[in-house]
Amino acid sequence: METYHLPALLEESIAGLNLRPDGVYVDVTFGGGGHSRAILSHLKTGRLIAFDQDIDAVVNIINDEKLIFLNQNFRFLKNNLRYLGFQAIDGLIADLGVSFHQFDEPERGFSFRSDAVLDMRMNRNAALSAADILRTYDEEALAGIFYRFGELDNSRRIARAIVRARNISPVVTVNELSDAVKGLVPVNQEHKFYAKLFQSLRIEVNKEMDALMDMLRQALEVLRPGGRLVVITYHSIEDRLVKNFIRTGNFEGISEKDFYGNLIVPFRAINKKVIVPDEKEIEKNNRARSARLRIAEKI
Q1: Which is nearest to 25 in space by CA: 194, 246, 224?
Q2: Hey, CA dihedral for 117, 121, 125, 128, is it positive or negative?
Q3: pLDDT digits (tens, 9 = 90+) for 97-116
């Protein structure tokens, strides 16, 4: 049987939640249910609300009366909690990025290892796919997403090559995109180049950074004082947003002071230094290699 997803830093993240048997917790990235299952094992009278916008995750719903599963984007966190009658929560966990299942299903178009239509939608009902972006965005817009979300230095040349290729023939599949940009791949860096390119398209398709910022703002509102925020990131763009928000309450990392000159700090960082997987975990789960864990407590 295919492993839907193997969660990274499972023990460390669950410990970071500081679970109470009667607490109310949220898993905003249910996926294969790994984190949710671990949380539920600690609850007695508590509740867990789990979010996942991917309909495929429904097959992993755990038969437990303490669980409420929502097939929703986590950017709608606050409204859904209010609708369910929860005014505050004791902890929230987010394991960002793409699940094994999404990468390993070629027709989803998340991976550059198999030829398929470039879809990349986590919510299959969303209007815009990666192929749509490559077809409709102008050169400047394409260069912008490759630079911002892929941190590709030659983003303008990549965008120009794609526009040139699509003027001859549509660029809608993995192989067609690879053919369009193959002359721009740095020597001996093919994997890294395509990983960044596909990451940038996926982030744009799913508006991941907007959703992350929406969720973090709402998490600050719904967490009780002393409640825990636990976030696992996989690339520097999302990690920077999380780090800045924990430290300053904004995404620019700009410290603000109150009338008396005291720093306004919404969270207390539990781990001063980011937590990363050890070699033993990486050996079992190579995709955990880029995982970074941050834990904070609401003040």
Answers
A1: 224
A2: negative
A3: 888 888 889 899 999 999 99
Token pair, residue 31, equals: 């996926």
Q: Cα separation of 144 and 204, whole Å?
A: 10
Separation between Cα atoms, residue 201 and residue 117, nearest integer Å: 13
Residue 11 has phi, psi (to 5 degrees) of -65, -45
Residues 6+ apart with CB under 8 A from 260: none
Residue with tokens 């636990």: 230
**DSSP H or E stretch at residue 229:** strand 223-233
Query: Any long-range contacts for 104-112 (C-beta under 8 Å, 24+ apart)?
Result: 104/2, 105/56, 109/174, 110/198, 110/202, 111/174, 111/198, 112/174, 112/178, 112/194, 112/195, 112/197, 112/198
Distance CA 134, CA 156 (A): 14
Domains and CATH numbers, the chain: 10-100+208-298 (3.40.50.150), 106-206 (1.10.150.170)
Q: What is the pLDDT of residues 76-105, one digit of tens each?
A: 999 999 999 999 999 999 999 888 888 889
**Amino acid occupying residue 221:** E
